[in-house]
Design a protein that fits this description.
- By secondary structure, the protein is of the alpha+beta class.
- It has one domain (about 1-100): wza like domain (wza like fold), CATH 3.30.1950.10.
- About 35% of the residues lie in helices and about 25% in strands.
- The chain is globular.
- The relative contact order is 0.21.
Length: about 100
């Protein structure tokens, strides 16, 4: 019982630390990102930040990712959908699939 509780506590700490790291992480070349857009058939997908710092997304084309966090990139993608009048109120989620080497 004690071992189970200790194991769960360690798992919680590791998950919390990873979430905190992801929240403030700044994207750059080589990062693999998971992009989800609710209601769009071409999503979710995984993309790699290219040498120019961009990601290529269906319907939108290239979107700058270098220098942005998960929250900032989500907002940039939402604005792009709205600007192109593709989705009026998009819900976009950006996650880190794999950290750059």
């Amino acid at each position: 019982m004690l071992a189970t509780i200790c194991g769960l506590a360690v798992a919680f700490v590791l998950l919390t630390a990873d979430a905190s790291r992801a929240e403030g992480y700044i994207f750059d070349t080589g990062d693999v990102l998971r992009i989800s857009v609710i209601g769009e058939e071409s999503y979710p997908l995984e993309v790699v930040v290219d040498d120019r710092g961009s990601i290529s997304l269906p319907l939108l084309g290239d979107v700058q990712a270098r220098g942005l966090t998960t929250v900032a990139l989500s907002q940039a993608i939402q604005r792009a959908f709205q600007h192109q009048k593709l989705i009026l109120e998009p819900f976009v989620k950006v996650e880190i699939g794999q950290y750059r080497p």
